[in-house]
Fold this protein.
Amino acid sequence: PGTTYHYQLRSKALVGGTGRSRDFTFTTKAEAGISDLEIKNITINSAELTWKTSVPASTRVEYGLTSQYTDTRSDDAFNTTHLVKLTKLNPGTLYRFRVGGIDSTKKEFFSPNLTFTTDALPSLIDVKIDGVTEKSANVSWTTDLVSDSTVYYTNTKTNQTNKFGGKEFVRNHEVKLDSLEEGITYVLKVASTDEKGNTVESSEYTFTTSKDVQPPLISNVKTQSALFGKDRVQTIISWTTSEPATDQLFYQEGLVKGAPETATRRSDGYTTNHTVVLTKFKPGNIYKFRIEALDPSGNATKSQDFTILTPQEEATVFDLIITNFKDVFKWTGQINK
């Protein structure tokens, strides 16, 4: 088939003469054949098949999970180059197929049985949530292919969804979620995308952040007073708390129960080391004060009452002389009469 032949016509006369024609040719009809078959652009759910035929022919692909092909793609147009894209395939699956068509003589022809395997999705296993605190949680999982790491998490109180992760391609994934709300249930799922852009997602998981119910402890209360001018005292009061907290001081002059208190402005930030400076105390007086601390969770605590005896006002030289005469001569008591 498909071969060119040469021939000549010869004759012989009765008297012995011979004759020969010129050279003639004819070509037998070509038999349909398939060449340059390629399988390319394989993804998790598609593949492209290309091939050539030696004669114009229709396009046909039969394929399935076994050689008992269950699916067909075809085009009745006659061509010598053929392209078929198979879609809606399953990830990581071996497919069997053959390509072919029908030529102008209505003869059907096919390639041998062949196979290809679609790309597999990353396999995502062993999702764990641990290290849950009031404000954070650790999420980890494993994939069989190197891929990136993303966690989608939803606050069930606000229904707000956020995502966080990393773009590094790894098999062992670890993501720490920060700035969570305490005492809130979160719903999360993890996702990984491999180097070919294939993404796999986990099912949903839930966790609940813990809630701080313990108030801060106040300790190491210290005071230091010094005269500030002739008739004023500067007092520094410092203390520590067992966790970051605001500070506020309440004080009164004297020890009378129920006397009016003065309060300092509550601090805006949270810290464990606290200092308050007071400049309105009078010399030689006794003051009572207490401390209040408030942590970020709203847990408040009050200290016991503390007392301060401020320094005496310094005497002048004249005051010292008069006092000395009072003690020695016993007569100065008449000076102010």
